[in-house]
Fold this protein.
Amino acid sequence: MKIKKILKSTFVLCLINLSVHGYAGSPIHISVTDSLVSDTIEAPDTNTPVIVEHKDSVVNKNEAIKPKKNYAFRGMSLSFDAAGGLMALATAFGQWEGAFRLNFLDTYFPVVEAGCGISNHTNETTDIHFKTNSPYFRIGCDYNFVKNKASGNKILGGLRFGYSPFKYDVDGPPIIDPVWGTESPFEFKGVKSHAEWIEIVFGLETRIVKFFNLGWSFRYKFLFHEKKNAPGKAWYIPGYGKNGDNVMGGTFNLVFDISTYRKVKNEKRNAVK
Amino acid sequence: MDNIVMMGAGLYDSETKQKQKISEYLSIAPEGKDTILLNFAQHIDAFYLPLKHESGDNNFLLYFSDAYGNYSVDTLKIHQTAIPHLESLDCPSTFFHKINSVAWTSHPLSEIPLTIDSVVISQPSVEYEDQENIKIYLRSVSH
C-alpha cells in the first residue's frame, strides 16, 4: 500500500514538472481523486502557484455556479455638455445639449443628441445683430477602441448626422447705395431655415466615481446643406456652430451611466436584505 | 464701410464673337445721376457696373468718343431684382442681384464708328465673384 502511494506521488510530481516547462509562471491546476495524495504535493517552482483541487469538489463547484448570460445590450447613459452651456453663458453663441446613449458589447454606442442653440450677438464693427434660439438633433454611433472594456474608460471614434430646423432674426444699419443714393433697411424677423451636416467625432471618457463619467469629444463638421434665404447665410447654425463649409467643435460631457447606477443600487439593496 | 457687388460686362466683336479691346474712348454714367462710373477708358474688353439696391430698371449711358471730342451715346437698360445678402456679421450687409432682362439702344455708325449691336445675359446672378454677367456685342463701321 505504501509503495502504491509513493508511485502515485512520483507520477503527480512528474506531471507538475512537465506543466512548469509548458506554462511557466501560470498557475497549475491538478485534479486528483485521492485526497491523501494531494496532501504530499509540493510546488516545483516557488514562483508558480500550484492549485490542487479534488475532482469531486470541482464537479460540485461547476454545478453551483451558473454561467452568466453574455447580453449584447450592456446598458445606457445620459450626458450633458458643460462646454456648450458655458459658451451659451459667456460667448456670442453656445448650446444646451443632452445625449442619450446605448451600450452594445461595451464597443458600439448608438447615440442621440439633442439641444438648443443660442445666439444673441451684435458685431461691434458692422453693428449687425443676429439672434436665434432653436433646437437641433444629432444621431450617430461611436466605437470604443479600448481593449479592456471592464475598466470603464473609453476611446471613442464615431460619426454623427446633424439636423437643425431653426429661425433667426437679423438686423443692421440701413444699406446706403453710394451710386444711386437710396437707403434700404436691413431687418429680417423670424427667418425660417434648416441645415444638415455630418460630424466626425473623436473622444475620450473615463469613470470618475461608480456611475459618473467625464469625457470630451473633438468634432470636425461638414455642412452639406443649408436652406438659402433672403438675407443670405445664417451667421450661426444651432448645433453646428458658426456658419462655414467646415468647422471644428467639441463637447465636455458629464455622463450619468444609468446601468451602473441601477447595478450599484441593486447591490446595496441585496446587502441590506 | 461700403460693400458693393458689381455686374461684369464683357465686350465682344459682333462678327467674330471674340473679345474686343476698343480703340475708342468709353465713359459710362448712371442715367439721371451726376456720377461717372467709367471715365474715358480705352483698350478695355470688360468693365464692372454697380446695380441699384432696389429692384427695377437700371439705365446706364454709354458715351463712345474719339480723340477729337466727338461722342455718341447708347443706353444700356438692365432690369434686375435686388436680393439682400449677409455673408457674415463681420462684413457689412449688401445686395446681390438677379438680372431679368436687358435692353439697349444703338447710335448711327456715322457719328462714332462703334456702337452696341446686341446684349445677352451670360450669368444672371450678380454676386461677389468677379464674373461676366452680360456680353455686349459691338458693331464697328468696318462690318
In short: The two ends of chain A are 53 Å apart (CA to CA). Confidence is low (pLDDT under 50) at residues 9-63 of chain A. The longest strand of chain A covers residues 183-209.
